[in-house]
Amino acid sequence: MTDRIATEQRPGPQSKVLLAAGAGLAAAAAFAWQAGGVRPAGAVGLGAIGGIALYHAAFGFTAAWRRMARERRGSGLRAQFLLIAAVILFSFPLIGYGRDLGLPTGGFVFPFGLSAALGAAGFGLGMQLAGGCGSGTLFTVGGGSTRMAIALSAFILGSLVATAHMPFWNGLPRFGGTSLIGAVGVEGALLASLAVLGLLRWITRRLERARHGNLEASCVRGSLLRGPWPPVWGALLLAAVSIGCFLLLGRPWGITSAFALWGAKIAAALGVPVENWPYWQGRSGALERSLFADATSAMNFGVMLGALAAAGLASRFSPRWQLSLCDILTALCGGFLMGYGARLAWGCNIGGFLGGVVSASLHGWWWLLFGYLGSSLGVRLRARLGMDPPMASG
Asked: Domain range spanning residue 364?
């Protein structure tokens, strides 16, 4: 009864915020259509759906990994495993048989070595300092977080700086990319991946029961339009967004390559000859075209504007302008580490981890291992910096 009364007494949606979000989405879709046609325009819409889901479900990798490391609560991780399982049921057949069906689909299958391991670990450390991952940074900025806007700026800078150093990192030892679909076929890859996800789910449940004696029950009781949502809702809708990327773009969802592009365009406008850097010499077309022609950029804009709409629906758009020095410094350091690490590790938690696993690439699982190790180090550093409340004893 108390929850129902509290929900009924919530203020109405913020009409000005919703109007701004709607106008922004319409403008972004129009610019994307003019610059690149249906794919980037559709990516704006997919991003908007993703932004709403991320915001209403508070679906982030950072907090879920931190809760597992600190409290041995694994509901957030299990929601991520559900997201992956739902996507691979569609993505693996599309990658294996899509061309025969008139739906040519490719995956992210990348090599993995020392540079990628360091990058994933650095990203994991950075996301705990900043308080958000790749997708988490986008939806919290859209939702009005001034601190995460600082983190996003540093994210972009770190991505740009990493592109200047890529010749060095690419020269370090690494294994070639391995596709499970290529190795054991679609059915074998599905069985193997679902088995690993099932094992990880069982481990999180076992660890949680060992620490607490029970599994945490979800107490979220929000509405469809105004939130908050249970994590399962967010996982399933984000799975639909991920599958939509395969159908619309012919590839997995990615985020951070756009940040490197944004940084390069800003640097070029300031007179930095980024077009002469080896990383950008094969990407000169992206530097010359509109940002809205880049589907990843268009989708990122959609995520932020979708989150803005969700914040307006929930009456929670309220930027906080008073930040402590610790807030600012950890946002800057964490954002930079994420940007730099993502370039080395083939992307962030979305492009590197999720994109790799749903492509049946082994590099996605390696990303998870080293990303989680870096994240665990970041959790300890947060405790030393006083960023988290002390754990309750007993």
From this structure: 12-213+222-384
